[in-house]
Amino acid sequence: MCAYFSAANAGQVGTFDCVDCQGLLEVKRVSNTMYSAKLVVGGGSCGGTVVAKGTSRLSEANELSIPYKMGKKRCFSKIAFIANGANVSDTCRTPAMEEYSTCATLGEYKKR
């Protein structure tokens, strides 16, 4: 299991920019299997707003799940790492909800 994490974690650490949205994703390694992630609106009318921030264990599927609250509802921002980037999805928000929004953070991200 340690070999999986040492080989897989090289692409997870860093800053990622959203391809078609205003999102900015920052990921740092906290320990051997734990990562800290912060999903922020990088520009537009919501620039600087933190959408989700927290710590998560990297799953075997190469994903982080960052919990946050939307009102009284518990939500998760899901970060799935892919080659040279990540895909960000959410349990409470959908791409359709963010369509035409300058505060959008869901979608594909490329590593800087």
Number of helices: 2
Going by helix content, strand content and strand pairing, the class is mainly beta
Radius of gyration: 14 Å
Task: Please tell me the overall pLDDT.
Answer: 88
Main sheet makeup: 8 strands, antiparallel
Gross morphology: globular
Compressed to H and E, one letter per element, the order equals HEEEEEEEHE
Residues in β-strands, percent: over 45%
Percent range of helical residues: under 10%
**Strand order, sheet with most strands:** 4-3-2-1-8-7-6-5
Task: Give the SSE map.
Layout: H1 2-8, E1 14-18, E2 23-29, E3 34-41, E4 50-57, E5 63-70, E6 73-82, E7 85-90, H2 95-98, E8 107-111
Antiparallel strand pairs: 1-2, 1-8, 2-3, 3-4, 5-6, 6-7, 7-8
Could you give a short description of this structure?
With 112 residues, this protein is mainly β. The protein is 10% helix and 51% strand. A hairpin with a 2-residue loop joins strand 5 (63-70) and strand 6.
